[in-house]
Design goal:
There is one protein chain. This protein is an alpha+beta fold. Helices cover 16% and strands 42% of the residues. The chain has a domain at 1-13 and 82-128: 2,3-Dihydroxybiphenyl 1,2-Dioxygenase, domain 1, CATH 3.10.180.10. The strands form 2 sheets. The protein has an 8-stranded mixed beta sheet, covered by helices on one side.
Amino acid sequence: MTEKSSKTGTIGWMDLSVPDAVAIRDFYAAVVGWKIEPVDMHGYDDFCMVPAAGATPAAGICHARGENADLPPYWLAYVVVDDLDASLKSCVERGGTVVRSPAGDDSCGAFGVIQDPAGAYLALMEAETEPAATDGE
């Protein structure tokens, strides 16, 4: 048996999309002290940025390509939700817009991007399931 993550409602990831990810990657490595881990994007690399003393990436720095090519540089927060489809439906019911329908793969899980009624963008990512606690543990 599994239950949803205790991380629901928290920021689970941050992505920065920019035209020149290499230059900005180096900027944040120097300014913040992040280590750089390349991520193969089939023809170019994006980057996971890892705290100097950590093993878990803190953020991603991505080339603004494809559907992001014409956007200005931006940081996008990903908030963890229990049920992505239910959260996207709730967004629309409350006057928001689903900008990117659920997407993802085994490496990053399911996510979608919304725009709230004020015009702000936010990504929602589905919580990973965790083993349920059992009596006596």
